[in-house]
Amino acid sequence: MSRPDWIVLALTLSGIIAYGLYKGRATKDLDGYFLSNRTVPWYMVLLGIMGTQASAVTFLSAPGQAYTDGMRFVQYYFGLPLAMVVVCISFVPIFHRLKVYTAYEFLERRFDLKTRTLTSFLFLVQRGMSTGISIAAPSIILSSLLGWNLLWTTIFMGGLLIVYTVSGGAKAVAYTQQLQMIIIFSGLAIAGYVVVHKLPPGVGLSDILHIGGKAGKMNIITTGFGGNGGGFDGKHGGFDGKHGGFDWNDRYNLLSGIIGGFFLALSYFGTDQSQVGRYLTARSLRESRLGLLLNGLVKVPMQFGILLLGVMVFAFYHFNREPVFFNRSQLELLAHTKYKDSLAAVTSKYEALEKERLSLLAVGADSRLAVREDSKLTIQADVRLTEIGREKTDIRATIRRWLDDRTVGGDSNDTNYIFLRFVTDYLPSGLVGLLIAVIFLAAWGSIAATLNSLASCTIVDFHRRFAPGGLTVEKEYRLSQLYTLFWGIFCVAVAQLTYGLGNSLIEAVNVLGSLFYGVILGVFLVAFYRKRVGGHAVFISAVVTETGVIVLNMLSRKGIVSLSFLWFNVVGAVGVVVLSEVLQTVIGSKVDSRAGDPAIEGRSAQRSD
Amino acid sequence: MDTGNNDRERAPLFGKWGYWYALVIGFLLCCILVFDFLTKHFS
Asked: Residue A50 gets which letter from DSSP?
């Protein structure tokens, strides 16, 4: 990075820390520290919700995902808008009415202490671990690509935000997230503009989409029937079922996105304290709801835009020299192994292929190359380009195979490096620093909210509940700061421990949530909609179903069961609801007295619109 | 009259939740149709 990049990076990060410290300076009690005194307007709730959900990996891997796998990842968010409405109707009013600090407090009033403790414990374990991995993933990427020291990168990634999060609590988190999201969107918009600006003259958005489409990147809608790429027409495996059945192991398709995504979003926004803690800071129930509902409407277009950036980068490399492997450090690793000579040979061959490809494209018509029907490329040139593409794919597969070799121990997945490699190679001085700052800010927004929620669960669901003796307001506040600090150090330590375990753990952060979310959601669904079910039945059901989901995941990883992780949310939620109903019938039909609590039952007089 | 309860049941902007259901389902359908068009047109 150049000096202007360092200046932009340092100014942005220190500015955010100073802003967080300034905004959170008046916080002195638990209400202020965890709920921002319930004074936050709807637009800050919206930005807080978005900033908490979108981690650094979201902005790093989504464009890379579109580059390699196409845009079908957007379907992952199709269940979210509907889930927002359900959360607003069923979950939010009860949390507001009971004036809880954590979502799990409600479960003690509805069921019993053990159910509250179990769900809060599952949240702490899952979130603590996944946040550690969320710190590790971008740290590895930045340190590999920029040659930074890994320990210091991790401390900057997961440690600096502790300064304002510990000091200012939820208020500092909310205000910094607002600023962070504005900088993030500005950074990405500038990056998108630069990509288009760097394309050959006359090449526009339509050409970009044609280039992406020709390479299979515009697979936005897939049905999951009969393999990838199935559209509604049935030509590539549609709903007609003639071309093969539904692929349950396919991660991103219309059905898994709507159903699995709905359950995941319902669980994440309704029961995950890192999100509940954001909208509980709103100044009223209406403001909480408005933030959530608008999040449902902006999330799909936003994700579409980020994925489109990946297709734009793909189109850019159509006209420019594409690296043989986007993670430079892995090529350097291979250069010091037994594959040194072979690597030199395939790299040289790759360079020759790229040179030939670009010269063939240059012969074509006015840069609108090989993508449109009006392309003036000759048939021979078109055939040769296809051959070159195939040879390049073979070379990359060879390099991946070498990296997967146990004696090398490399990382064969370079998807997360694609966007940042483009940024560092082609963006002008100053903008590189801004985009690196975007990665840091995305990480900070998400981690700061999580640390605040981990601390709130620890003090409210455990310390207050189990530690003997009362606490003064001052002591509770100081203790909350200490717990935030503890979780910050814990997550950075988890990040350090994950480095030796390789890339698979980065992927695990996505799967980890789905292992627990379904069960926690099931407990809440029973609490809201199955009034006759009591604490014992739901507790046993949650333990049994959680064990079942973990076993299912192990069977899936071994290939015995074919089920994508999004479906674990459905299995967990439905499992708890069904099992608790059965158990309640077996144990006895005694109605839990707390289900009649007017504060909990508040929706009994609801209209039927 | 329990105005607090009415506030709780009242949906933001439109008053009724049915409108929000219609809006998000309509929005999702529009997204799917536009995306499906883009998928077919550019493949």
From this structure: H
- The CA distance from A580 to A543, in Å, is 11
Which one of A220, A304, A372 would you mutate to disrupt binding with B, by most B Cβ within 10 Å of its Cβ? Answer: A220
Label residues A153-164 b or e (16+ Cβ within 10 Å = b): bbbbbbbbbbeb
Chain A interface, best mutation among B1, B32, B37, B41, by max A CB count within 10 A: B32
Sequence-ordered list of residues with C-beta below 8 angstroms from that of A167, at least 6 positions apart, any chain: A20, A21, A24, A25, A481
The alpha carbon dihedral of A596, A602, A605, A609 has a sign of: negative
pLDDT tens by residue, A511-523: 777 788 889 999 9
CB A368 within 8 A of CB A207: yes
Residue A483: pLDDT band (50, 70, 90) is: very high
ipTM here = 0.89
Considering its fold, how many domains does chain B have in total?
Answer: 1
SS3 sequence of chain B: CCHHHHHHHCECCCECHHHHHHHHHHHHHHHHHHHHHHHHHCC
Alpha helices in A320-378 (DSSP H): 328-334, 340-363
Q: Which of A165-169, A522-526, B35-39 has the lowest mean pLDDT?
A: A165-169
Which residues face B11 on adjacent strands? Answer: B15
pLDDT surpasses 70 at A68: yes
- Whether pLDDT at A38 is above 50: yes
**CB atoms B28 and A78 under 8 Å:** yes
Its domain, for residue B10, covers 3-41
